[in-house]
Amino acid sequence: MSSFSFIRNAFHFIESQTRKYIRRHFGQIYNWIEHGTMAKRLSRLLFFVLLTCVSDLIFAQIQYVIPEEMERGAVVGNIAEDLGLSIGEMSFRKFRLVTDDRMQLLKVNKGSGILIVNERIDREMLCGQSATCSISQDLAVDNPLEMYLVDVEILDVNDNSPTFPKMRYAFQVSELTAAGALFPLESAHDADVGTNAVSNYEISTNKHFGMNTRTRSDGSKIAELVLENPLDREQHSSFHLTLTAIDGGIPRRSGTAEIVITVLDGNDNAPVFDHQIYNINALENIPVGTVITTLHAVDLDQGTNGEVRYYLTNYVSHRVRELFNLNPETGQISVQGSLDYEEKKTYQLDVEAVDNGTPALVGRAEILVELVDVNDNAPDLKVNSLSIEVSEGAAGGTVIAIISATDRDSGENGHVQCHLPPNIPFKLQKSLNWQYNLIVSDRLNRESTPSYNISISAWDAGSPPLSTNKTIHVSVSDINDNAPQFTQLLYNVFLMENNVPGASVFAVTALDADLGKNSEISYSLLDSFLTETSASGQFIVNSESGRLHALRSFDYEIQKNFQIKVQARDSGTPSLSSTALVNVIILDQNDNAPVIVSPSNMAIVFVPKSAHPGYLVTKVIATDADSGQNAKLSFQLLEATDHRIFSVEFTSGEITTTQNFREQVAVRQAIAVLVRDNGQPSLSSTVSILCTVQHNVTENTFDRKYKPRNPELFSDLNFLLIIIFGSTSCMFLFIICFLVVVKYKQDKNIYCYTSRICCHGQRNSTNASHCRDVAESNLDSVQTLPVRDSYNYTVCLSPESSKSDFLFLKPSHPTLPLDGINIHDTER
Length: 828
Known about the structure:
Blueprint: H1 3-25, H2 27-34, H3 38-53, E1 59-67, E2 75-78, H4 79-83, H5 87-92, E3 96-98, E4 106-109, E5 114-117, H6 123-127, E6 134-141, E7 146-155, E8 168-174, E9 182-184, E10 198-203, E11 209-215, E12 221-227, E13 238-247, E14 254-264, E15 272-273, E16 277-283, E17 291-294, E18 297-298, E19 308-312, H7 318-323, E20 324-326, E21 332-335, E22 346-355, E23 362-372, E24 380-383, E25 387-391, E26 399-406, E27 416-419, E28 426-430, E29 435-440, E30 451-460, E31 467-477, E32 485-486, E33 490-496, E34 504-507, E35 510-511, E36 521-526, E37 529-530, E38 533-534, E39 539-541, E40 547-550, E41 561-570, E42 577-587, E43 595-598, E44 603-608, E45 616-619, E46 621-623, E47 633-640, E48 646-648, E49 654-657, E50 668-677, E51 684-694, H8 716-746, H9 765-783, E52 793-797, E53 807-811
């Protein structure tokens, strides 16, 4: 260190000490010195030091020594005697202690001048751990002013015991720590100083630890725990010791603390498994996540050295790691993949148990996992084709597929049997232990079953048994074994007459259950005759659609029906065919107007003037070549000279009188009758009749039958008599008609006034025209006869029967003479 630095440090030390002294003894002066700038403070400080040096006569110092903890009022010293002041002088000069407002520990008794203890003095509180401790107080007297410094040194007494900062200290010592190792301890604290402070440390008696006390350069004592003998955690895992701190006072005081020493484990033991080889049997279908075993290894160490973790060694393959999982904490081995006995039967796992010591120690073991086969594989079916076609004409025993049935399981679990559903024309024929032939066992019919979805079932012999189903689609190919079949064997076709030639009449349909060309049908006509008329020449058929067309227009009045034989033939090999009859019925159309047979137009009819109401003047007879409603005729009075005299019956065409003839009635009456059929549209014809009223003609009593009869006169017996009488009359009329015809052929010179020929049941126009010619010729012959010699007969077919062709003669009036007539008239 340089001289300048030394001088500077000395000056600073002197300055600091001076400042402390001035501040303690001269507070006001200290404030005066500290006020101002640095230069002023320094100059004032030098002035005060100079003043002090030259004021030895003014300032004086008195020292006393007392122990701490003196009682209040204890005498420190006689300050008046020490200063040489009397009691009166002390009072006169205002003897007093100068305080700085702190606690006043000392007090001067002004009556005796004795300095006494005013408050309890605790050295430790007052000076702490300082080596010296004193109380400095100023005494002041006036006249002249004098200042005295009283310095009372406080001596320490052993009133405090040593104390440790903690009551309990914990240490962890490894059992591997070598003897002689030191473990520093925290020092005890003693508020006393000097010899009263801590002087020594002691520890409770034990075999392993001792105490070493050292003195530091500052004089303080420190303690160190010494390991005297090696530790063994397996014998003693912990120690509880008492540490004692002792001071040097009289009497000696001490303080204690507890030391807990935990012996840490040293990693000197490797983990050991319960077994070196673990044999485990596990079902191959064990669920994922199932624990198959739990490893257990024991490590005699403790703590982290005894904590064991489990691992698979590097010898374990990647595949095994995918199937098994080893929990490193618990040692549980669980399944994490799908085990398969058929893939591998035994798995070996090398495991190791590793502790957490440093360095880590390892124990090893071997795990053998043997899988137990279960029936977890269903039979496997393989077919050489998934879509098979077989002809419907295939013979029994024809092989259509080869089926392989295998099972990956072993033993009974791998024994497979195959079955087919019942009631199908197929069966399985075993060829090898694991192979079957699917063969045809019955006749096939594509038309009823065009294909088969054959479900093949395979069952193994496991428990429970497993099965596999595979469906084979077998298509049946067609052969031409079915002839075309018409939807009907007989078709009734109704065709309206006057049809348009070439128009479609009807379509026949034939179906063929075969396929392809075997079901392609062509239609043709075969000759079929009805009344020696070939229908095939009047109709044609479309060979593809089967539609019939008429080649000409038909007339119901000429031909009413045809029969056509149609053939349907397929295109198979050999070709097959079938036939059907088409009955064509011609329907009538209202295309013929009524033909009036009798009387002829403008015919003359004689009516007696004495005729009563209801007298039959004449009857209009008409025919219609149509049929049904088209031939149903109705009669209507169209015109008449006097509408009040005549009426026409609507359905029969009878013209009758409605009242008696008056005197002024005209002799000649003209009547026009309209004959209409019931067709749509309706057709009609008219006839005009001239009626001549005669005065000399006897009245006809024929009109009596038109008088109404009392229905009460009829009875069941009367009705029976009428039937018997009518039957007899019919037979008699038949004989009469027969005789008339014979006689007519023998004698053609017979003339009659009127002939009525009614043709019922004959619908052809030839007969109708014949009837009309006969009537007209007879009417002409009537006009050549004299009136006075004329006779009126009616030759008529019975209108009540439409099926009789017999004629009978009936006189127009019973009063007419019959001389010269060869035909006998019979009155009903």
